[in-house]
Fold each of these.
Amino acid sequence: MSLALVHSRAKSGVQAPAVRVEVYLAPGLPVLNMVGLPEAAVRESRDRVRAAISCAQLEFPNRRITVNLAPADLPKDGGRFDLPLALGILAANGAIDPQALNEYEFIGELALTGELRAIDGVLPAVLAAKQAGRRMIVPLGNAAEAGLARAEHIYTARTLMEVVHHLRGDTCLPNAAMHCDFIEASVPDMADVRGQHSARRAMEIAAAGGHHILLIGSPGCGKTLLASRLPGILPMASDQEAIESAAIASVSGRGLDLTRFRQRSFRSPHHTSSAVALAGGGTQPRPGEISLAHNGVLFLDELAEWDRKSLEVLRQPLESGTVSISRASNTAEFPARFQLVAAMNPCPCGWYGDNSGRCRCTPDAIERYRGKLSGPLLDRIDIHLAMTRLSHEELHLNAPSGESSAAIRERVILARQVQINRTGICNAHLSQSQLKSHCQLASANQDLLDKAMNALQLSARATYRILRVARTIADLAGCDTIETPHLAEAIQYRQLDRALALPKRRG
C-alpha cells in the first residue's frame, strides 16, 4: 500500500493545532487531488512541490495522488504544508522510509528550487511540538525564532534535500537553539525628562501597579516623552511573558524583533487607525495592536481625536485581558493584557489652562471635545493626570537631569515583588474579593472615600480603581496598610471625574 502519514501544524490565532497530512498513491492518470479545507495558497502547493522534488533530483510519481489534510473542518492556509506534502509524496513513493516520519513534525514553504523559505507562526508550532514530545524540522530562516523555545530536538534545514538526507540517516541537521543568541536593544531613559515631578511620580505608580494612565496637557508639555519611557522603568518580562509576546508577534506577519525579546513591547498606533487595526481581524484573523502590546505598553496619543468606535473596542480587553475575533470561517482569541498610556489635549486648540492665555475655546466646545471619551472608557483608566508646560529655563540643556530609569525601576521591582508575594498578580488586576482582603480602610479613610464618591459622582468601577492605586502607593512606601496620604493621592488622580476639571459656562 502506497500510503504515508506526515505530522504538521496549522495556524489558528496564537495556537498551532495538529494537522496530519495523509498521502495516498493509486493507479490511474497522473493527478494530485487535495482535500481537507485547503485555502488557495495550500492548493497551489501542488505545483511548488512538483518542481521542488524534480529540482532535488528525486522522482515525482506519475500516479494518482490523493492528499488529505486532517482534521477536515480546520481551515488551512499559507505555504507551511509544502514540506510535509513533499515528504509524504516521497515516502509513499518509497524514496523515504515512512516509519522515519513518525517522530517528526514538519513545516515550511518550498521554493521551486527545493529551498525552504521562512513562514509565519513558527514559534507556536515549535512550542506545541515540544509539548507533544515530537521533534520538528523548520526552515533555516526561522531558526532564531524556533530557538526561543529552547527545545532539544528542533532542527533547521536549508533545502528539501537536506531534510531527505537527515531522514535517511546520511547526515544530521543542526539544532535551532544554536541560532538563538541576540543582543538586547537599548530603551529611552527617564533621565531625559526635565521637571514634571508629579507626572514622573504618576508614571512610577502606574509602572509599579500595572495601572492604566491618561495624561492631559497642552502641546509640548512632555506627554509623549514620558509615555515612551515607561517600558524602561517596567520590570523585564519573565520567560513565560516573553514567550507569549513572541508567539503573538510570530503569527502577526509583521516579524519578530529578537533584539527586544526580553523587553516589554511599546505599541504606538496612529489616531487614524481603525477598530480592526486595534483589535485585529482579517479572513484568517491576525492580532491587532492591543494584542501586539500584550505584557507591554499601548500608547494612544491624541486620544480625543480617535474614532469613538475604535476606542470602544478597548473596553472589553481592558477588563478581561483577551480579545475574541469571529469570522465566517474561523474564530480566534488573542491575549491582550496590556498597560494603556493615553495622552490628550485639554481642549480643541490644546491651550486651555496654559499660562500663555492663548485658549479661545468656548466651554461648550471643551465639553464636546472631552465628551468624545465615553464614561465607561474613562472609568477603566486608573490614573488621570493634568500636566503643565515647563518654563524655558527648565528646558535648558544644562538644566539638571531627572532621575534615571534604572533607579526608578529598582523601586518598581520591589513594589511588584510585594504584590506577587501577596496575590500573585499586579494590583491593577485585583479582583473584588482580593480588594476586600488587601485594601481594607480605617473608618476615617472610608469616610474620605465616601465623600470623594459623592463629590465626584464616582462609579463603583472608578472607586475600586482608586483602591487599587492606593494599594500600589502604599506598596511603594513600604506600608502594609493603606494610610490617609496614600488614599488622598489616589483620589487626586481622578481629575477628569472632578466637576472643577470642566470650565464653568459663561453667562
Amino acid sequence: MAEPLPPPGPSSLDALRQRHGPRYRWLLLLSVMIGTMASIMSSTIVNVAIPDMSQHFALGQERAQWVSSGFMAAMTVSMLTTPWLLGRYGYRRTYLICMWLLLLGGVAGGISGVYPLVLAARVCEGLAAGVVQPIPAIIILRAFDRNEQGRASGLFGMGVVLAPALGPSLGGVLVDWFGWRSIFFMVAPFCVVSMWLAYKFVPITAPGGVAADRGGAPLDWIGLLLATAGTLSLLNGLVHLHDGAPLLAGGLLVIATLSCAGFVWWERRIARAGNTTGGATRGAAPLMSFDLFGYRQFAMGTVVAFIYGTALFGSTYLLPVFMQRGLVLSPSYVGTILLPAGFILAGTIALVGRLADHQPAHRLVSIGLLLLASSFALMVTVNTTTSLFVLVAWAIIGRIGLGFILPSLNLGSMRGVDRALIPQGASVINFMRMLGGAIGVSLCGILLEWRLAAHGDSLTTLATSSARLDAFDEVFCVVAGICAVAIIAAWQLRERATPAPPSAD
C-alpha cells in the first residue's frame, strides 16, 4: 500500500525544510532536546526532596520512595506507545500533548496538599517522559545523513546528561531556599520554551514525512496491559525481595514471568494476523515488532542497552551510598566528587559523537564498556585513607566510558534496520535501557545487603568498618563483571557486508 501524501500547509515536513533550509534538522533536534531534558530532569531531581516530602506528609521511606518509583514505572511502560502515537497524531501533536502533561504534572505536584495527588502527578509526568524520550533518536536516524548522525547524537547527548548532572545540585539549593514544592516547578520553563519551539519547528507529519493517520489501527491495549503488569510485578517483586519478603517477592516474580510470556505470545499473534490479511485488518498493530530481532545488530543492541542500563542506574544508587556509608563522606563531598565527572561526561559525549561518524559503533561501545567496568573494578582499591583525587579519577573513568556508549549504541543498533521499523526500534531500545535501570537499582541493593549480612555488618550503623568496605568491594566486582560480559554483545554490533534480513513471524 502506498504511503499517504503529507498534508499541505506551512507545518508539513517538506514546507518546514524549504522554509528553514539545511539548518532545519538542527532546529528540530534542539526543539525536542529541551523537552527531553525536562523529562530527564523530572526523573532525577525529585530524589533530593524525598526526605522533606516524607516529613511533610508523615510518610515512611517506602511510601515516599514511590514518588520516584511511580515515575520510573510509568516512563518505562509508556515508551512502547511512542510509535503508535506518532503514526496516529504526528510529531507535533504528540510532542505538545506530552509537554502539556509534563507541565501540568509539575504544577499539580507543586501545589497539591495531599500525597495521593503528588503521586498521581508524578505518574502523569512519567507517562509524558516515556513517550518523549525515544523521539530524538527517531529524528536523528531519519532526518540526518549517516555522516551527521554521530555528531547529532553527541550534541543531543551532551545536553541530556547535563540535566541530571546539574539538576540535583540545583534542586538541593531550591529545597533549602523555597521548600520541596519548588522542585516540581523546575520543569515549567523548559516545557514552555520547548512548546514554543515545537510550534515553530516540529512538523505535524508522522515519521517519514507522511500524514498522521487518525483512522489507523487502534492501540494494542492488551499488549500494553501485559507489559504494564509484567513491569510492575517485576519491580515490586525486586523491592520485596530487597525488603526481606521472599514469598511475596516470589509470587510477584512469577506473575512478571507469566506476563512477559503472555506479552510475547500476544504480540506475535497480532503480527501474524496482520500479515495474514496483508495489513488490511482493523485490529491493533503490535506494540513491539519482533521482526526487529531478526537484525543481529539490533538484537545485540538491546542486550547491551539492558546491561548498560543495569550498570548505569545501579551505580547511581551504589556510588553515593558507598561514599556516604562506606567512606563516611558528607553529602556535600559526594556532590562535589560527582559533579566534575558529570561535566566530563558531557564533553566526552560531544567528542565521541563526532568520532561515531567515522569509527565503527561496536568499537566505541566496547571501549566504553571496558572503561565502565574498569571504573567499578578500581573502586575496590578505595578505602577511608584514599585520597579524594583518586576517587574522583576512578569516577571520571566510568563517566568517560558512559560518554563512549551513549552516542554510539543507538546508531550501532539501528543502522541496517528497515526505516519503517525505526520508531519501534528506538522505543524498544529505550524501554530495555530503562527496564535494566530499574532492575539495576534493586539488584545492587539486594547484593549489597546480602554481602553486608555475610560479613556481619549493616548500613543501620553509622560507623564504617573493613567488613563493610569488603561488602562494597564484592558488589563493585559483580557490576564490573556484568559490564565486561556486555562487551561480548557489543562486539556483535559490527556491520556486515550484507545485512541480515529480519526473520519472518
